[in-house]
Amino acid sequence: MIRQENNNLHLSHPLELPCGAILKNRIIKSAMSDSLADGEGNPTEAQIRLYERWAEGGAALSIIGEVQGDPRFPEKPGNLVLDNHSDLMKLSSLARRASIEKAHIWPQVGHGGALSYSLISHPKGPSALNIRGLQCAGMTISEIKKLPDFYIKSAELAKEVGFTGVQIHAGHGFLLSQFLSPLFNRRRDQYGGSIEARCRIVVEVINKVRDAVGPSFPIGIKINSSDQLEGGLTQEDALEALQILDKTSIDLIEFSGGTYFPGAASSSDSSSEGPYFVDFCQKAQLVTSVPLVATGGFKKRSDALDALASGDVDIVGIARAMILNPSLANDWLTNRAGDPVFPRFESPPPGGITAWYTMLLTALGTDDEKSFSLDLTSAIQQYEERDEQRCEKWRRRFQV
């Protein structure tokens, strides 16, 4: 389906999704693993306050990263869990406070798959893998066919407690992304081989979630424009997958890229300078009419304006820039000086920058960012100590 180019897009223009829901402007806070749940899958006050602040800051939509439907396969022990044992009162508080000012709040429902946190999981992916740095069992046909049930339950709970939509996580190397990627998916049955077969479980999840939540509840998806690795999902694959997704009832497609797979060399699909995936969205616009989000590399208001004016993207996704300035959306919408100043780190240790931003998220959740002064080494130490404590709680809670 071909879309008519619209050069009149602007940051403040509302966007109507195919299901009829309205996003009040063209700025979303993209999913990050905030690692702020309590170690038992439930929200903390700091997590609730964090998303409330982004709503106060003007974001049309905030997406909560790495929300699990199956606690056996988490990304980290600080993930939220949406299942039969969730604390519905706390989830309702999160949904209510994060949807003030007509903001949307969606959990990003996922499954760690082969990349599940091994200290509290026995990872399973599309295919069994045993390489240095990555070991997992392969899923049986029976296990694959049960996967949509976890997404259905999470989406139903999300709707019940007041979230305004859900995003299905099929990017960044987690389970549904693994099914799409030849690096992870080496199956020779109906779920492996051609891109149509590798997409099969993704389409099944979308269709069954839609049946469960009804026609007017937003369902988004996040997928890779490419794995950016040799032998992985290519841009050509992603465009074919997009044509398949266009035939579903999906409401919003967010493009990102990159996947962790030990030993795989980077491919020529790696991102360009500036906003990373706008060029890919230009190609995607030719094969779908579903609204498109590009996430990654938007550091300046001018970048967002240029991307929207081009007609290549319908909405821009912001992540770390909204950690540095939680009111960035309002600042950009009113043309106030709001471009964040990104810190520069000399020779950062592995994982140091991610840990630093994650601990800054914690400070935002306690309204204490002005006194935040951690160096990278201290950030890593606090981050890892907190995860260790939460692993103990996770094992007791979920008996893994």
From TrEMBL:
It comes from the Bacteria. It comes from Amphritea atlantica. PANTHER family: BINDING OXIDOREDUCTASE, PUTATIVE (AFU_ORTHOLOGUE AFUA_2G08260)-RELATED (PTHR43656:SF2). Residues 21-330 form the NADH:flavin oxidoreductase/NADH oxidase N-terminal domain. It holds the Pfam family Oxidored_FMN. This is NADH:flavin oxidoreductase/NADH oxidase family protein. Keywords: Flavoprotein, Oxidoreductase.
